[in-house]
Amino acid sequence: MTVEDCEAYKDFLKGPVASFVGPKRSRASGRWRPFTPEGLSADSQAYAVRAIRAAFAWLTTVRYLAGNPWSAVTDPATVTKEVSVQVDRALTADLWVLVRRALDQRCGDQLLNETPEQVRQWRTARAAILLMGDSGLRREEAANAGRQDLRSIRHVASAGFAKKAGEGGAAQVEIWALSVVGKRRRQRTVPVSAATVRALRAHWIDRGENFDAAQDDAPLIAPLVIPATLTARAKHGNKDGDRGEDPTEVQSDGDDRARAKKAYAPDALARLVRQGMKQLAGELLREGVLSHDAHAQLLDTSAHAFRHTFGTRAVARDMPIDVVQRVLGHASLQTTSIYVRAERQRMLDAAAQYYSEDGG
Which intervals carry biased composition (Basic and acidic residues) (predicted)? Predict the structure, then answer.
């Protein structure tokens, strides 16, 4: 490969020939193509060039190649953007309280139109939502969290905390901490609220497992029902999955719950949360306790929105910004500071509305 070949490949990435372009398909499909009609963005083109350059650099290092032609090739031009975090998707404090209250109602058999299976699914969704909303986890981190990574710590709080809590002297409190591995394979420890632990315990009871005597490899959150697809049933140990069943059906018998020992895939956990939020939004709107704006926001609420919810709430409740950064696992404090700016903007908006209504 020559430098001219590399430049030609850069041109190809910018405008691939028609035979390489097609609509999104499964990779197992004979109609799959590597490029969509929209093509690659400039950032994606630059990433591809860097990846190939790195591969050739390694081949040169191990002396498989005599030289790296990509070292003489510049990256495609890109625009350096501001750090983009969709903080506006975070739930407001009032909406977060409303969602948690509604989840508790559906998890406590208080709705007569819910079947026992539906209530168990609500308890699974609640455990996932609280884990992300109270600890700031990404959906991959919540899906991969294991019981062996969650532990209880007896912490002797400072005198200032004890005074604020109305206790004399140092106060001993129980804190749950979860060790997770996030982006760039970085391990960090995040606090887990007592409400989240209670939700997890309820979910484990539904699974028929003992939360306090769990196996080391047990996931914190696992599916209670398994879709009848071959892939899902093979993952969860069902060798009789090929039974000619409708793949859209959901199995909910006791044997399936006993087999559900493996964790959710991140996409599956995110789908459970999104579907739960859409159903919750419709029910709360019909009950008249949700505005149309809040209804629209809940319909668009993804699993990642609860991570933003934690970030904005933590800043609003005066958690030190460096602590928020460590809990969220941000590599840069600049990313975390976006939550500070968002909270300041929310405060100014509220003040502007207050003074306009007050006539001042």
Answer: 237-246
Domain residue limits at 54: 3-72
pLDDT tier at 216, thresholds 50, 70, 90: low
For residue 110, being part of any structural domain is answered with yes
Give the model confidence (pLDDT) of 20-48 as tens digits.
Answer: 999 988 888 999 999 999 889 998 999 99
326-346 CB burial, b ≥16 within 10 A, e <16: ebbbbeeeebbbbbeebbeeb
In a domain, 205, yes or no: yes
Distance between CA atoms of residues 153 and 173, nearest Å: 8
Would 159 be classed as within a structural domain?
no
How far is residue 282's CA from residue 285's CA, in Å, rounded to a whole number? 5
Q: Which range, 160-169, 213-222, 311-320, has the best average confidence (pLDDT)? A: 311-320
Q: Compute how many other C-beta atoms are within 10 angstroms of the C-beta atom of residue 130.
A: 22
CB 45 within 8 A of CB 10: yes
Q: Are residues 230 and 320 in the same domain?
A: no
Burial state string for 244-277 with b = 16 or more CB within 10 A and e = fewer than 16: eeeeeeebbeeebbebbbebbbbeebbebbbebb
- Looking at residue 254, its pLDDT comes to 46
Structure tokens at 220: 């914190």
Q: In this structure, are 13 and 45 located in the same domain?
A: yes
Contacts of 357 (CB under 8 A, 6+ apart): none
